[in-house]
Amino acid sequence: MLRLAVDGVSGFEVSDAELWRSGPTHTVETLRDLGDELGGGWELVFILGLDVLSKFDEWVDPEGVVELASLLAVSRPGYAAFDWDGFYERCPYAAGRVECIDSTAIDISASELRRRLAEGTPVDGLMPEAVARYIRENGLYGT
Predict the structure, then answer these.
(1) What percentage of the chain carries pLDDT values higher than 70?
(2) pLDDT over 70 at 78, yes or no
(3) Are both 113 and 101 inside the same structural domain?
(4) Do 120 and 59 belong to one domain?
(5) pTM for the full predicted model
(6) Model pLDDT, residue 94
(7) How far is the C-alpha of 108 from the C-alpha of 114, rounded, in Å?
(8) pLDDT tens digit string along 108-141?
(9) Which stretch of 21-25, 38-42, 101-105 has the lowest confidence by average pLDDT?
(10) Do residues 117 and 100 both lie within one domain?
């Protein structure tokens, strides 16, 4: 679905590396593998929501994550103000490695999208049409 979502968008590449691992996978391991696969000359950027960034210090080896990739935190409309001072107190190693952008997207979470799909509520305009079609055609999320 991610491939469908970014098809035709320059600068994005989707990796299926985690699909081929057995057992639990952690972001730091995936980034390490991607860095090894790509070799030098690339900068990895890990995109995550501010809601996820707020618990970044609870991840497996968060310091390793920011050594391997910069973080691009996306704030969606309606999200409460982020406690940057508290974040950098807990994650001083992330200084200079995090950029935040405000999303112009619609204020909706993935959980809400899945709920709407399961209920049969239309999701027109809330995700790329190719992704919505794939979900319907494959009966995902109770569709």
Answers:
(1) 97
(2) no
(3) no
(4) no
(5) 0.77
(6) 98
(7) 10
(8) 778 889 999 989 898 988 988 999 899 989 999 8
(9) 101-105
(10) no
Q: Which helix (H) or strand (E) holds 120?
A: none
Q: What is the Cα Rg of the chain in Å? A: 17
Closest CA to 69 of 31, 14, 100: 31
Distance from C-alpha of 29 to C-alpha of 18, rounded to nearest angstrom: 9
The domain total for the chain is 2
Shared domain check, 87 and 47: yes
CA–CA distance, 28 with 127 (Å, rounded to integer): 28
77: CATH: 3.40.50.620
Measured between alpha carbons, how far is 97 from 107 in angstroms, rounded to an integer? 26
Report yes or no: 101 and 71 within 8 Å, Cβ to Cβ. Answer: no
Q: Using CA atoms, how far apart are residues 57 and 94, in angstroms rounded to an integer? A: 10
Sign of CA dihedral 84, 85, 87, 92: positive
Distance CA(7)–CA(4), nearest Å, equals: 5
CA–CA distance, 97 with 69 (Å, rounded to integer): 8
Residues 57 and 84 in one domain: yes
Domain that holds residue 125: 108-143
